Amino acid sequence: MWPKCAPNPEGCHTEPVDFSFSEQEQAVADLSRQILGDLCTPDRHRQLEADGAAHDHQAWQALSEAGLVGVSLPEGCGGGGLGFLATCLVLEEIGRTTARVPFLAPVAAMALAEFSPGHQCLAGMADGSVLVSPALVEPGRDPGNPAAAAAATGDDWTLSGTKEMVPFADQADCLLVAASAGDEVGLFLVDKSASEVEIVLQQTTSGLVEGQVVLSNAPANRLGAGAEAVDWLVQRCTAALSAVAVGVVSEALRLTAAYTSEREQFGRPIATFQAVGQRVGDAYIDTEAIRLTALQACWRLDQGLEASTEVAVAKYWAADGGQRVANAAQHLHGGMGVDRDYPLWRYYVWAKHLELSLGGATAQLLRIGDALAAGTA
Known about the structure:
- By secondary structure, this protein is of the alpha+beta class.
- 49% of the residues lie in helices and 19% in strands.
- Strands 3, 4, 5, 6, 7, 8 and 9 form a seven-stranded mixed sheet that branches.
- The two termini are 25 Å apart.
- Residues 1-7 have low confidence and may be disordered.
């Protein structure tokens, strides 16, 4: 994608470095685009909305049957054995089509494979029949410092506390919960069907289902102990949201470019007006910045490299730049931008949803500032 020269022993830059996707990764991106492009059309979305359906089971089944849901899970449990970047390429296409599928479930399944590789649910997660949803958010608290408490009774654990904005909480079979266990934190797996688990669905502007989860001494299995385990999941979920944002803003920009090229005012397309061209140009720059920073974060995580600052930078651009792209797209569409018979409004509300999920622009800037102050950025 971005060729770069590597230095030879004499210090001269001569040998190019290939930054393109691997053949397998490109195949994952192409297949995801084909499946979701065929199924998640504007007509399909309108039908789901008319039926009051919050989930697109047909699209999820198609992704599962194509092996894309478990593409990053180990081959031993039925997964594709590829890295995190492959899943992020699928997520980009989900954002491009605003597909109503549980897009963070594959990331949570990766955490289960990382910290409990022999777990019996992994095969079901690889084929999409078992859904695990990350439960990380508590208002006013960093995900790495949860108020939800874990208590040990012998070899068993119970959890108590409340989690907010748990994605696809109504469809999940189990929850991956960050909780405090004494002086440390950890990741715990909770069966959602347990009587000690209460789900209260929450309304969202995007229409994506989220829920409040109340745990009252709910039985749990500890998967990973220590802040590193929680941070492992938080970073990948945050990077995944940035990957979805790449697809959202890319399609919003494409729709805007097409509309301004066709919409005429004073006898010529409005795209030829200088102010319109400048606004679209700025949106293009923001879109490419969102893409570049998301790819960098996802690639570093895929390679097992330190990526906390890169993830914060990616989410900052997804939040701040994403809203600029969405605002420009809606503004340049005029009244069509808020017409629910036209697809752009979905991209606007998805951009806003992604902006605030797991911390908006200010939260990311604070993380970057802390890293700079500590000399770790």
